[in-house]
Design goal:
Helices cover 44% and strands 27% of the residues. By secondary structure, the protein is α/β, with parallel strands linked by helices. The protein has a single domain, classed as Vaccinia Virus protein VP39 (Rossmann fold), CATH 3.40.50. Strands 1, 2, 3, 4, 5, 6, 7 and 8 form an eight-stranded mixed β-sheet that branches. The termini are far apart.
Length: 261
């Protein structure tokens, strides 16, 4: 399989995985057609925005990364010019803005009927600030679809933080269910639905291929492979004959939260 084919396959698998994480939340608490929604950390592919736009009045998609925003704008532009009526309709419902999730200056309190994120808070430098800001701009009684919070053993968190740092990224991981639940409950919310047993499957290469320094990548791979073997039953680690890489799943938690009055 060529490198381009492997990358395309990985992107397709990622998109399907994201869809499978988010849809159960919408089934548990279906959005209303007149909702005005905010997608926090919308990313280049606008996964949450596109799913929500099929169900609600309008979605404001915010991100703070210029590369992600450029790709998202190109996607919306392409859809708006499509001959496909559904794509044009969805594009017309999505508005893109460059906003820092940790400081949504310019967005009023109680602005949105719904806030959603698929892993968007995990990419923020300060998870707690982004979470608090998301709750601030959500109206009383509004719904927050908080999707894609990763739970890992602490030794796996340690190595994955090193992998992130080697790419110049910062991501947030939770060492236990209780720690995540306690952090969520610091804001005035009711947990309408909690799904603790979701799984997201990736290849190890998806994390390590972007690391520019080959020696660092090899050293990180050695440490990661050791931990994936240690937690093989938990991570369902297997060898992929097609790509020649290890694939594994990690535990993800997602929530439907209601902001208390």
């Amino acid at each position: 399989m060529s490198l381009a084919a492997v990358e395309f396959h990985s992107q397709q698998e990622y998109a399907r995985g994201v869809h499978d994480l988010f849809e159960p939340l919408l089934e548990a608490y279906p959005p209303a057609k007149d909702w005005f929604c905010l997608d926090v950390g919308s990313g280049p592919n606008l996964n949450a925005s596109l799913i929500l736009a099929k169900r609600v009045r309008e979605v404001v998609a915010i991100d703070f990364d210029d590369v992600s925003l450029a790709r998202a704008r190109a996607l919306v532009s392409s859809m708006s010019q499509s001959l496909n009526v559904e794509e044009k309709t969805l594009a017309a419902k999505i508005r893109l803005e460059k906003v820092n999730a940790e400081n949504m200056e310019g967005i009023a309190d109680n602005e949105f009927s719904c806030v959603a994120t698929i892993g968007g808070l995990r990419h923020c430098l300060h998870w707690g600030k982004a979470y608090s800001e998301s709750m601030r701009v959500l109206e009383s009684g509004g719904i927050f679809y908080l999707c894609g919070e990763v739970i890992m053993p602490q030794d796996m968190i340690d190595i994955w933080k090193l992998i992130d740092a080697a790419q110049g990224r910062n991501e947030y991981y939770w060492e236990s269910r209780s720690v995540l639940e306690e952090r969520i409950s610091r804001e005035p919310v009711q947990i309408v639905r909690a799904i603790w047993d979701q799984r997201f499957r990736r290849s190890l290469g998806a994390f390590l291929d972007p690391v520019q320094d080959k020696q660092s990548a090899d050293r990180l791979r050695e440490g990661a492979e050791s931990l994936l073997r240690k937690y093989q039953a938990e991570t369902q680690t297997t060898y992929d004959d097609g790509t020649g890489d290890l694939t594994f799943s990690y535990r993800v938690a997602s929530f439907v939260l209601r902001k208390k009055a």
